[in-house]
Design brief:
Blueprint: H1 7-10, H2 23-40, E1 46-50, H3 52-66, H4 68-76, E2 89-95, E3 101-107, E4 111-126, E5 131-148, E6 155-172, H5 179-210, E7 220-222, E8 226-229, E9 237-238, E10 243-247, E11 250-253, E12 258-259, E13 279-284, H6 285-293, E14 301-303, H7 316-320, H8 324-329, E15 336-342, E16 347-351, E17 354-367, E18 376-394, E19 397-415, H9 426-445, E20 449-450, E21 463-467, E22 470-475
Antiparallel strand pairs: 1-10, 1-13, 2-4, 3-4, 4-5, 5-6, 7-8, 8-11, 9-10, 11-12, 13-22, 14-15, 15-17, 16-17, 17-18, 18-19, 19-20, 21-22
Helix pairs in contact: 3-5, 4-5
Bound molecules: 2-acetamido-2-deoxy-beta-D-glucopyranose (NAG) (2 copies).
Residues 211-212, 214-215, 456 line the site of one 2-acetamido-2-deoxy-beta-D-glucopyranose (NAG).
């Protein structure tokens, strides 16, 4: 079905339905409409691809942890409404349910086709007296769709078209029973009875998995500053190798104001080349930018310690080495106080392999005076500098550690010591930012950015890649 052609643009549309009747015109019209619809749709701030690895793990662990097949087996002997007894067998029991083997296959535009192969033994007393045993190998198949629950807005798995395929049947019968007759009887009876017995297990497994989406819509706090909530942009889509869930995260300040995610210039796209069946979470640079806006105010820093990192103590004398006028104004050294104010929201950018945090603001240096007297402003500079970001995941939060990448501009806004060349301060300010400012920022960033809480995902094992405009977490299972 040409799954590779423009899957991004056609998400949610089913062009092949128009084939046959309509001819080219209709299709062109349809594709144009699709294009328009896609453009008006909000760009997702994050997206999740669920491949067979995670789906397999989810279904397998739901089967194991819920003990659903065993429970169904235990129920088999009991009389329940709507459940037909197996003719000719009394005292029915199901035992020795074998560890199920699960195979999954994605059907584009539909869902994931699931086959659970298992075996079990049915015991009972035959109508002619004597114990009988039926050893069955069977496949339970169904198609699981990933939809969006209307009430909660959360993703939800639903199964359709459950069938039970009898792969083989062996019987141990009392010698008085003619096997041919019995086998035929059993075969037709089991075909009717097994689906009612086993298909509810498939639904029960999905109920179990669906519960693991519940925390997705709970806002996760980012320190005291605000919270992040992952909301679905649209109904998840299904391709030939994964489910795709698009998120429009809601980033909110503590007092309730939402921070608008900037329009992404181009569509968020996951690069090719991840292993078949693997799963990824992609976080856009615009999402990280919105999250850091929560911290903007704390990025304003006053530094007044005498010694800073690796730097010698900072006084007007240090400054005089770069601006001789300072020595004239302050013949006796005074301690320096520095104020950094970030006056534009911090912005995260990403190019393959490299991510930067852009900071715009002012840097003002003061000479401290004796107690109770306000420090005197020496000069104020407008500045733009970049920090290089390194990402990691710790305790299921995205962690950032920064280091100074480049000081991009310095321009004088005011000065009480007369005109001077700002360029001459580049070295001093660069050291200053690296030693005094970056450690404060790194401390603040330790709050970590919340990742979507879904399917008990352990993000700590993920491998991180910086791609165009996004960070990819290649998800790994324990
Ligand atoms: C049952 O499932 C197994 C494993 O998926 C598969 O190899 C086999 O062909 C299936 N049998 C039938 C009869 O569908
Ligand atoms: C949801 O979050 C709560 C509190 O952190 C936790 O106890 C619970 O296990 C979570 N539920 C799921 C389904 O992950």
């Amino acid at each position: 079905m040409g799954g590779s052609q423009g899957s991004q643009g056609l998400v949610g549309c089913t062009p092949f339905r128009l084939r046959g009747s309509g001819g080219t015109m209709l299709r062109i019209l349809f594709l144009t409409l699709c294009g328009l619809l896609t453009r008006t749709r909000a760009d997702p701030g994050a997206l999740l691809r669920l491949g067979t690895d995670i789906m397999n793990h989810e279904v397998q662990s739901a089967l194991d942890e819920s003990h659903i097949l065993e429970k169904m087996a235990a129920e088999a002997g009991k009389k329940r409404p709507g459940m037909k007894p197996i003719k000719g067998i009394t005292n029915l029991k199901v035992k020795d349910v074998q560890l199920p083997v699960i195979t999954l296959n994605f059907i584009p535009g539909v869902g994931i086709f699931q086959c659970v192969s298992t075996g079990m033994t049915i015991t009972g007393k035959s109508f002619m007296g004597g114990n009988m045993e039926i050893i069955l190998v069977l496949n339970i198949t169904a198609t699981n769709r990933l939809l969006q629950d209307e009430a909660s807005g959360l993703p939800v798995f639903k199964s359709e078209g459950c069938e039970v395929i009898l792969v083989s049947m062996k019987t141990k019968l009392p010698s008085s029973m003619p096997p041919k007759v019995v086998n035929k009887l059993l075969d037709s009876t089991l075909r009717k009875v097994l689906p009612t017995l086993l298909c509810p297990a498939i639904d029960a497994v999905l109920v179990y998995v669906n519960r693991k989406w519940a925390n997705l819509s709970v806002p996760t706090p980012m320190g005291q500053m605000g919270s992040v909530k992952y909301v679905l942009t649209s109904v998840p889509t299904t391709t030939a190798s994964y489910f795709q869930v698009d998120f429009s995260p809601v980033v909110q300040l503590q007092e309730g104001t939402a921070i608008q995610l900037a329009e992404a210039g181009e569509a968020l796209e996951l690069p090719e080349g991840y292993a078949e069946g693997s799963s990824q979470l992609l976080l856009s640079a615009t999402l990280l930018t919105a999250e850091l806006a929560l911290l903007q105010k704390s990025f304003n820093v006053n530094v007044q310690d005498k010694t800073i990192g690796e730097l010698p103590s900072q006084t007007t004398e240090t400054l005089a080495g770069f601006i001789p006028e300072v020595a004239e104004a302050y013949p006796k050294p005074k301690p320096l106080v520095t104020q950094i104010r970030i006056n534009k929201p911090p912005r995260v950018t990403m190019k393959t392999g490299k991510s930067l945090l852009h900071l715009h603001g002012t840097l003002e240096m003061f000479a401290a005076r004796r107690r109770h007297k306000a420090p005197v402003s020496l000069f104020r500079l407008e500045t733009h500098f970049n920090l290089k970001i390194q990402y990691s995941v710790h305790e299921n939060r995205l962690q950032m550690a920064t280091s100074l990448d480049r000081l991009l501009s310095l321009s004088r806004v005011s000065s009480s010591i007369g005109a001077f060349r700002e360029k001459g301060l580049t070295g001093l300010i660069t050291d200053y930012l690296q030693e005094a400012y970056v450690p404060v920022i790194n401390d603040l960033l330790q709050v970590g950015l919340p990742l979507p809480d879904l399917l008990d995902m352990n993000y700590n094992l993920a491998e991180l890649d910086i791609v165009e405009n996004a960070l990819v977490l290649d998800l790994k299972l324990d």
